[in-house]
Amino acid sequence: MPPARKRARAYDPVKIRAAVTAQFGNVRRAVATLGPEQLALPTRLPGWTVRDLAAHVTMAVATVGRNLERDEPPKAELTLLEWPFATAPRAADIADGTRELAAAHPDLDALFARTGERIAEALADVPGDRLLAARTGAMTLADYLVTRTVELVVHTDDLNAAVPGLDIPYDRQALAAATRLLADALAARAPGGATEVRIPPYAVVQCVEGPRHTRGTPPHVVETDPLTWIRLATGRVTWADAVGQAKVAASGERADLTALLPLMA
Fold first, then answer.
1. Residue 246, SS3?
2. Residues 6 or more apart in contact with residue 151 via CB below 8 angstroms
3. Could you tell me whether strands 221-224 and 195-199 are parallel, antiparallel, or unpaired per DSSP bridges?
4. Angle 172-189/13-31 helices, nearest 10 degrees?
5. In terms of pTM, does the model score above 0.85?
6. Considering Cα of 204, then 127, then 155, then 46, what sign does the dihedral take?
7. Angle 233-182-96 (CA atoms, 0-180°, nearest 5)?
8. Lower Cβ count inside 10 Å, N or C end of the chain?
9. Tell me, what's the pLDDT at 1?
10. Half-sphere CA count of 240, side-chain side, radius 13 A
11. In this predicted model, what pLDDT tens digit does every residue of 191-235 receive, in sequence order?
12. Is there a contact between 175 and 226 (Cβ–Cβ < 8 Å)?
């Protein structure tokens, strides 16, 4: 867990709802083009096929409606910046539930259609400050929807990596929100101002204890692109590999983030 609570940046709730809907639609349209052989391909998630992963995308979105059906908890238990660090304990249960869902719904397009309809109904006229009894901890609907952008973007990338030529597009708002949340989570895990992490065009954060720069180019700088950052933060690629492949530029002795990554499983 992060050593201290850091105030999360604000997200436009209207744009976040639209981003979740848009990215879910992007995935649905792409999955509908896949044949049996492609759906049976392995993914970079151990033991998961493309079919499993596609089913999991519906699960990640359907949790919004299921959480809204539960009684509203008395108070929030989890901030947005704490969410990335709260996901690992549920990994095994999620994997089991994903495989069961995929086996129970051979018609993936029907599953996507039903999930999309239910989320639209669930979100109608529900305020963003409504608390959800999420299994990671009670949090507001507005915050929970930001976490859904992370789920959708990460698994869009997983699907693109698994199926050559699939090329599911990324909604700009979804990619921006996922990048910013995971960048802010890094700053919460390692508070300080010695290192500047740049992820253009979406985020710049300062982190790591040490001397704080006040002007000019900071002495310790990390720069990478949004998808590489998301892969680093979620353990899809290691720091050494990303640096070795020139996907990350790092300068200064405090610019090695190996010990801080990944942020979530």
1. coil
2. 57, 60, 61
3. parallel
4. 110
5. yes
6. positive
7. 60
8. N
9. 41
10. 1
11. 998 999 999 999 999 999 876 655 666 779 999 999 999 999 999
12. yes
DSSP state of 70: S
Report the C-alpha dihedral over residues 65, 66, 72, 74, rounded to 10 degrees: -120
What percentage of the chain carries pLDDT values higher than 70?
94
Tokens of 122: 């669930």
Owner of token pair 């400050």: 129
C-alpha–C-alpha distance, residues 251 and 231, integer Å: 20
Question: How many Cβ atoms from other residues are within 10 Å of residue 73's Cβ?
Answer: 15
Distance between CA 53 and CA 73 in Å, rounded?
Answer: 30
> How many residues make up the chain in this entry?
265
Burial of 223 (0-12, 13-18, 19+ CB in 10 A): middle
Q: What is the mean pLDDT of residues 130-137?
A: 95
Q: How far apart are CA 105 and CA 110, in angstroms?
A: 8
List C-alpha distances in Å: 17 to 61, 119, 120, 138: 11, 10, 10, 19
Q: Which residues contact 155 (CB under 8 A, 6 or more apart)?
A: 27, 53, 56, 57, 60
